[in-house]
Amino acid sequence: MDMYRNAYESYKTACENYGMESINFNQFVRDLTTEQLDIFSNTSK
User: Fold this and answer.
1) 1-45 pLDDT, tens per residue?
2) In whole angstroms, what is the distance from residue 45 CA to residue 31 CA?
3) Is 1 within 8 Å of 35 (Cβ atoms)?
4) Strand ranges for the chain from DSSP E
5) CA-derived radius of gyration, the chain
């Protein structure tokens, strides 16, 4: 679950940087693809 939370925090920061409204955590996790999670986990090491 930590991986999802870290990905969500990165997403929220990016939204803030670009002045965009972020979606909630539950929707974020539901909409992630396996490919997106794999890319994030490989770049966050």
Assistant:
1) 787 888 899 899 999 999 999 999 999 988 888 888 777 777 655
2) 23
3) no
4) none
5) 10
Lookup: tokens for 13 = 């920061």
DSSP assignment string, 1-45: -HHHHHHHHHHHHHHHHTT-PPPPHHHHHHH--HHHHHHHHHH--
Bin 17: left if φ > 0, else alpha if -120 < ψ < 50, else beta.
alpha
Would you tell me how many other CB atoms lie within 10 Å of the CB of residue 45? 4
Cα distance between residue 28 and residue 11, in whole Å:
9
Instruction: Please report where in the chains the tokens 């992630």 appear, as a residue.
Output: 32
For 39, what's the count of Cα atoms within 13 Å in the CB-facing half-sphere? 5
In the structure encoding, which two tokens stand for residue 5, read together? Answer: 């939370």
